[in-house]
Structures
1.
Amino acid sequence: MTFEELKKMQKKYNRLVGIETVVNFIFVIMAFAFLFVPTNIEIWTEIIICIFAGISLLTWYLVRKSFNMEKYRKEYKAYFVEQNLKKSFTDLYYNHKEGLSKKTIEDTGMINLGDRYSSNDYVKGKYQEISFVQADVTIEKMGEDNYVTIFHGQWMIFEFPKKFNFRLQITDKKFGTASKGLTKDKTIKREIKKIITESDSFNKQFNINGEDEFEAFYILDPAFIDRIEKLKKENQGTYCFCFYENQLQIAINNNKDVFEPPKAFRKLDEQKELEKVHQEIKTITDLIDFLRLGQNVLKKTA
């Protein structure tokens, strides 16, 4: 699909959403107006409100029936996302409907999984010889009356040639209620220890738990600590890092999805969308570059 065809699809969507918005607005105004009519015609008030509610629901249904949002998202991602991913990574696999399995995250013991889990925009590839996976993840728990989001952001997995001989987790203290901390692995006789680094500022910002203090200090040298602190300062969201088996898993709780088309009433600008997608892809490459995941210290540890 060409960019001009995408623009036509988005314009149609904007028109339909505009109609829906106007109808809903009229319904709300009429509902409030009839609430103040004399009580002796209260039955007519209820009937008229029900009629407008029916019209509003019918409009909502017709808008969604008239526009194939899934096709629009698919074509948007094929045009803007997939082509740009191919330019940045080798061994690429991308599927906007797929996501990380709940078990993948559950096995790490990094965070609470709440009551409802969803994931999409699955990306798998290689950058600078580092294999990675990324997907959007949303985790919700049931509150008193409705679901409350406890994690909404990106989950990244970077793989190394060999397994780590320990588990280590570094969690931003502002990560939120999803934060869990490592639990003891029943298959091995290792206690989880709270680790204190030589950096007071780092200790104030992060909780560090691990099975091996020596290995933890080997990774958390002053340079690596400094890079994580800069990452926290210069980017949105809070982070949780976990060295697990042959992987470094990074959860970014930033309350957003990536690779999504603009919302209703926003103009589809080709250059702006290309730049937005480029910046979202750059988050992956920056993490590998900034944390120097290909450097010898991690490869030797692995």
2.
Amino acid sequence: MRSMVKTEQGSERSYCEGGRRQSADCTQKKPHIPVKLSGWKMGLEPTTSGTTIRRSNQLSYNHRVYSNQPCFLELVHKDRQISFSASTKTFFFCIFNKTAKKLLMGAKEALVAEFEKRVFQESYVRIFKCLSMLEEEQLWKQPNAQVVPIGNLVIHLCGNARQWVLSGIGGVEDNRDRQQEFRPQDNIRKSDLIFLLENLRVNIRQTLREMDPKCLQQEMMIQGFRTTGFSAMIHVIEHFSYHTGQITLLTKWLTGTETKYYDSFNLDLLN
């Protein structure tokens, strides 16, 4: 079968199935549907006439746009060329939407996995290790009035993560009392702190699992800061890491022993 492709100079080229140029003895013509185009949606291409090539690993697009003229779209898959008429604007807009959704979903999965690793597999494990090394009364000791005790740091971490993830991203009511997080509460025991952390982990996992990928780029106000879902998750990761370091230092000061986080790793290896 033969199809006719109009070039920028107005001449015609003849193609058969498979994309090879053929002589005039190809007698059967492929149906050609005129499409009137007037620019591109979402700013993907300039509105001027011309030739553009888009390539990926397996598929490249050769397309020509003529205002008030029929548009013919050629798809080249590996070495096989398939020519057909289509509304180029609609075609590429659908491709763009599907690709954007896949990219957002991939970004969400990657970010949630990194959050799980940095917060739950690193910071949580180190906090639990420190708590196991401490006596109950050591939770509320401090070298001076400017240093926050370990017990308050754990409560503060939970309050911050609830506000930024559960409320900011998940939409639950924000009832945080930040000042209360820094008041001495020596009636709270290690088991209470562990319960707070475990309860927080369950709720955060549910919130991130149900989070719409669009939330990553959506603007929101959290704790008076204008941010996005993506930035909120990064904030909680670094906030946990920051205060876990303080908890580690205080644990070493109170116990006089190493935490031995990396005993099973050789940290002297080169890349």
